[in-house]
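Narrative summary of target 7.
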Amino acid sequence: MTDEYDLPPAAFDHVSSMLTLAKRKHQEAMAMVGSPDANAIPRLRQVLQLLEEVELLAEDAASYVETDAVAGALKELQQQQASIRLAIERLEALSRRSPWASPLPWIVLLVVAVVVLGAVG
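Modeled conformation, tokenized:
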């Protein structure tokens, strides 16, 4: 591992590109969290996929530059992924029992969205 000042220009550009792409994917995922629709499960799975891609990019960048900020961002990202997985599990369990019969899936989704957006902000 090295700090940012020891990186050759090509490596610095590579890390910068990875982090820019990761940021863009993360913003897209967070925007999708707050978009209500009739069936949230497929959308949340797509959010989770985007967050997993962000994690891969961030881990790759961390292999070049190790900082507390990167480690903290990865930890926060993993917490967001866990929240989305939990929301998916809860929505799937509710849909198996009585799809659309309860407002609970929407309440769970709203709570998860607030938690995720609070963690990002």
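Residues 57 and 66 are 14 Å apart (CA to CA).
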